[in-house]
Amino acid sequence: MLALMNPQPKTVTTLREMARATTIIESPRLAERLGVRLTIATETFQHTGSFKFRAAYNVASQVPQSKIITASSGNFGQAMAYACRLLGKSCIIVMPDTSARVKIDAVREYGGTVDLTNVNLKSRNARVAELAQEHRDAYIASAFDDPLVIQGNASLGEELADIKNSFDLIIAPIGGGGLTSGLITGLRKAGASIKVFGAEPLIANDAARSLRAGHIIANETEPQTIADGARTPSLGQHNWAILREGLAGIVEVPEERIAEAVRLLFSLANLKVEPTGALSLAAVLTEPELFRDFSVCCVVSGGNVDTEVYRELLGQ
Amino acid sequence: MLALMNPQPKTVTTLREMARATTIIESPRLAERLGVRLTIATETFQHTGSFKFRAAYNVASQVPQSKIITASSGNFGQAMAYACRLLGKSCIIVMPDTSARVKIDAVREYGGTVDLTNVNLKSRNARVAELAQEHRDAYIASAFDDPLVIQGNASLGEELADIKNSFDLIIAPIGGGGLTSGLITGLRKAGASIKVFGAEPLIANDAARSLRAGHIIANETEPQTIADGARTPSLGQHNWAILREGLAGIVEVPEERIAEAVRLLFSLANLKVEPTGALSLAAVLTEPELFRDFSVCCVVSGGNVDTEVYRELLGQ
Fold first, then answer.
1. Is residue B163 located within the same domain as residue B222?
2. Which of B20, B267, B311 is opposite residue A315, by nearest beta carbon?
3. Cα(B100)–Cα(B105) distance, integer angstroms
4. ipTM of predicted complex
């Protein structure tokens, strides 16, 4: 009976049916401003507003468990909640009890159970471990360090490889490395030799330091970059194995370039993006000579941003 | 020689190749909030950021003249400038000398010649007439009242008719009536019987009053609605002939509903829209019972909005 009640495990093909195709935007004015041939691939209109749905849906559809537990105060939690709703599964999302009301509401509206934790008394990982003891039938999902996450994000790489008159290079935000390793995996699977660059906040540059050192280096404390999707402590092990030899390079982006990219995308491309999503365009602003005259695809990873934060960025 | 230098007249088929397909967005959270099955068709990523490109390109490609003159302080001017650039034609856009710098810059960056006029001394139409005398070889283009405008906008109606699991009804902003009459024309051409509703600001409700009266009624003065694309003095004659019997109805939208729709599209659909573009969603907020449980397509007409105006709307 249980086997019947659970949806059939889905393949990546099914993910490509379920995920919304990425939205391709062109802005000649922005391209002229940057001095590159520019294509924007935005995941802001992906289900739940970020690329994370690709990974979440792939995880939730591939694992046999009908219950999933994960810690996320951001996009992965919303994505997992909605993926589980679509699949008839249940999930518990562990969030700090200081999370913004809009983020808690979003997870709940997508159908997830929110578990609020006082992170001063107990870390999120400790709370997840506790819940895992209580729910021994549940799958504990990582937001980035899981082959199923990479496989899910690879669907975006395959999509970008399919585009006619393709690109010289693709730039994408790098936090835990799930998106960039997925892009590399998908492009390779499709037989495309497009280079992939990571765009990382300068004040959260553990991935750039890892690439220079030849091994994973973690941030000592959580870096307070405005690009909150890149506040991850370090690259994931699974991702590192792909990135160490597959990534063409990492651009380290100052905070003010992130804000400038948010404003340029607003005014010249009509695009609402979250700060993390603006990192790829900010990388072109930071290293214009590196990219000049190339055909560049900037991946915008998501659009979910607090209204007041966004108003402040626009007003700067 | 001249005939060779001018591009060949284009057909609507070619417009459909040149125009970007409209961007379809779904937001289950927004749909649940509104109580309708909701699809958003947004023209914010159309070339130059609004549906006006469809009309402008159709006009510029169909008329034999290689020079076009029009009065526009808004989206039609940018659209015409870019359409002419693509077609190797030239254009003069008459704008009030009080126009925002960003709007003047946009027309110039798209390749148009800006003619700044002190509208206290000379109306824009008087200035256009003056320029028409100087440039007797130019085509004088209307932003909405021209069969070629309707034909251009019809391409959006055809696109929407092509969508699988189509809609019960489509709601679109109404100002001069070019968009709604184009939608009706395109849907009919495609053999679709989807109803079309107009969404008009309550304080600029000349179209609603015209429909009630059975003849065109003009606004006495320019209505100061925040939806500046709907500040047109009256419906166009060509549009009226289609709308008087083809429109299912008009919803008159209070200003505060427009602002609310801008915020909802921002927070629940990651969509940056200009106030005029938010009118269709605002119509559902204004008359929820009229649309409840129907499959509704809200057309977002454009996204070009002054940053400060937008920040204020978000902050309300």
1. yes
2. B311
3. 9
4. 0.93
Is residue B6 situated within a structural domain? no
SS3 at position B96: strand
The Cβ of residue A51 has, within 10 Å, a number of other Cβ atoms equal to: 33
Using alpha carbons, list the distances in angstroms from residue A104 to A72, A85, A114: 10, 16, 7
Nearest beta carbon to residue A314 from set B110, B270, B311: B311
A134: left (phi over 0), alpha (psi -120 to 50) or beta: alpha
Residues A158 and A232 in one domain: yes
Q: How far is residue B24 from each of residues A251, B20, B35, B37, B120, measured CA to CA in Å?
A: 33, 12, 19, 14, 42
First CA to last CA across chain B, in angstroms?
A: 58
In eight-state DSSP terms, residue A277 is G
Q: Does B74 touch chain A (CB under 8 A)?
A: no
Q: Which residues of B touch A263 (CB under 8 A)?
A: 307
A84 and A232 in a common domain: no
User: Is B99 within a domain?
Assistant: yes
Distance (Å, whole) CA B224 – CA B303: 19
Q: Identify the bridge partners of residue A91 per DSSP, sorted by sequence position.
A: A68
| Final residue in a domain of this structure, among B141, B172, B193 | B141
Measure A166 CA to nearest chain B CA, in Å: 18
CATH of the domain at A81: 3.40.50.1100
How does pLDDT run across B102-153, given as a tens digit for each residue? 889 999 999 999 999 998 888 888 999 999 999 999 999 999 999 999 999 9
Among all residues of chain A, which has the CA nearest to that of B105? A29
Structural domain including B117 reads: 52-141
Q: What confidence tens digit (pLDDT) does each residue in B211-268 have? A: 999 999 998 888 899 999 999 889 999 999 999 999 999 999 999 999 999 999 999 9
What are the tokens at A226?
A: 């405005």
Query: Edge-to-edge strand order for the sheet containing A139-140?
Result: A113-117, A90-96, A67-71, A139-140
Which among A274, A103, A145 is positioned nearest to A201, based on CA atoms? Answer: A274
Pairing of strands A113-117, B67-71: unpaired
Chain B closest-CA separation from residue A228 CA (Å): 17
